[in-house]
Write a structure and sequence with these properties.
By secondary structure, the chain is of the alpha/beta class. The protein folds into two domains: about 110 residues, STAS domain (Transcription Regulator spoIIAA, 2-Layer Sandwich), CATH 3.30.750; about 100 residues, Rossmann fold (3-Layer(aba) Sandwich), CATH 3.40.50. The strands form two sheets. Strands 1-2-3-4-5 form a five-stranded mixed sheet. Strand 8, helix 7 and strand 9 form a beta-alpha-beta unit. Helix 2 packs across helix 8. It is elongated and about 55 Å long. The protein starts with 9 loop residues before the first strand and ends with a helix. The model has no long low-confidence stretch (mean pLDDT about 90).
């Protein structure tokens, strides 16, 4: 985006009973802003695993930032907690709607509703837009980006496997027999390395992520990737 520059992420945290509420203002983007959010959550969730992010003043989210939110949600759920979002700004709402990740998060119109929701019964399992069948393996060095790719493609109806390591990727590819391998920019060290990888999986379509995928606006990058996947599968 011409003329765009990151805006500092400002966080204000407060404890409401057993719930940690974090007000976010600015941009949630790959890099320092994401690390700031992750450090704030890690600092305050040693006991409290119930977190609400208030996003009314978040004006931009890129792919890495959205992936960080997905991974944070997954980590909290693994520890018996959860992440809920409230007061979504128009931009955040548009991103979650366009990527079909609105159904991944529990979202609420007000902070009060989000806090009270932690005392409600658990929600039913998430539903995807189709029956998983087509397998996709994603490889990248960023856990946040892999979390975004996994959530995005699962919501589009695919069965997704992720790894940070090329050696593990080869094991996954042999075991799962995917139709597509998505090769992240974090793994694209050289043209020769990419070509060598392509030759090692001759019967699999390899899609290279654009170098700016992590920092691109999340809904546009996600929509374009899903369109690329569908195009490859119908060719």
């Amino acid at each position: 985006m011409v003329g765009w520059c990151p805006m500092q992420l400002i966080l204000q945290s407060q404890i409401m009973g057993d719930v940690l509420v974090i007000h976010c203002q600015g941009h949630i983007v790959f890099g320092d802003e994401v690390r700031t959010l992750q450090r704030e959550v890690e600092k305050l969730t040693h006991v409290r695993k119930s977190v609400v992010l208030q996003l009314a003043e978040v004006s931009y989210v890129d792919s890495g930032g959205l992936g960080a939110l997905v991974r944070l949600r997954n980590l909290l759920r693994f520890d018996g907690g959860d992440l809920k979002l409230c007061q979504l700004s128009p931009f955040v709402l548009q991103v979650l709607t366009a990527t079909k990740l609105l159904g991944v998060f529990h979202t609420y119109a007000s902070e009060k509703e989000a806090i009270e929701a932690f005392s409600w019964a658990l929600a039913p399992p998430e539903k995807t837009s189709g029956t998983p069948g087509t397998k996709i393996v994603c490889i990248d060095s960023s856990n946040d980006l892999l979390a975004y790719l996994s959530a995005l493609l699962k919501r589009a109806g695919y069965e997704v496997f992720t790894t940070k390591y090329p050696s593990d990727a080869m094991i996954l590819i042999r075991a799962t027999k995917p139709r597509i391998v998505i090769y992240g920019s974090g793994m694209q060290t050289s043209e020769s390395a990419i070509e060598k990888f392509r030759q090692s999986v001759p019967n699999v379509q390899v899609l290279l992520l654009p170098s700016d995928f992590s920092t691109a606006e999340a809904s546009q990058a996600g929509t374009e990737l899903v369109d690329r996947v569908r195009s490859v599968l119908t060719t």
